[in-house]
């Protein structure tokens, strides 16, 4: 006998199993080099390898337009960030993707230097 709740339970189970299947049961390593703002794009000359999984092909398609962050990729693919990090890590290791660290935020400039520059500009140009 089936109940009305069974289709909902099957859907929840599918959502839990899918990331496990996509990553082949792997988990993030402790020394993961990818943060949410790490930028990723396709290599100029990707290697010829065995056929890729549909999720990896989707990542390559997304990244072919230019740099995207890990967070953007997760948003476009609707995959969990951890799964995206694992897939990006695989593709980067295989030579398909190029990643670069995000540009560090600017350091605070000494206020006195800014005031001296402002005073110099005002003295010169009025």
Automatic annotation (TrEMBL):
Pfam families on file: DUF742
Cross-referenced PANTHER family: DUF742 DOMAIN-CONTAINING PROTEIN
Name of this chain's protein: DUF742 domain-containing protein
Organism: Streptomyces mooreae
Organism ancestry: Bacteria, Bacillati, Actinomycetota, Actinomycetes, Kitasatosporales
């Amino acid at each position: 006998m089936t109940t009305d709740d069974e289709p909902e339970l099957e859907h929840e189970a599918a959502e839990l199993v899918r990331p496990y299947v996509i990553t082949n049961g792997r988990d993030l390593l402790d020394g993961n080099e990818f943060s949410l703002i790490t930028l990723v794009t396709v290599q100029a000359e990707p290697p010829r390898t065995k056929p890729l999984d549909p999720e990896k092909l989707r990542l390559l398609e997304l990244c072919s337009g230019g740099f995207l962050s890990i967070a953007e990729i997760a948003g476009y693919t609707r995959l969990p960030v951890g799964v995206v990090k694992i897939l990006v890590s695989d593709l980067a290791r295989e030579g398909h993707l190029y990643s670069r660290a995000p540009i560090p935020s600017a350091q605070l400039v000494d206020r006195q230097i800014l005031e001296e520059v402002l005073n110099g500009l005002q003295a010169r140009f009025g």
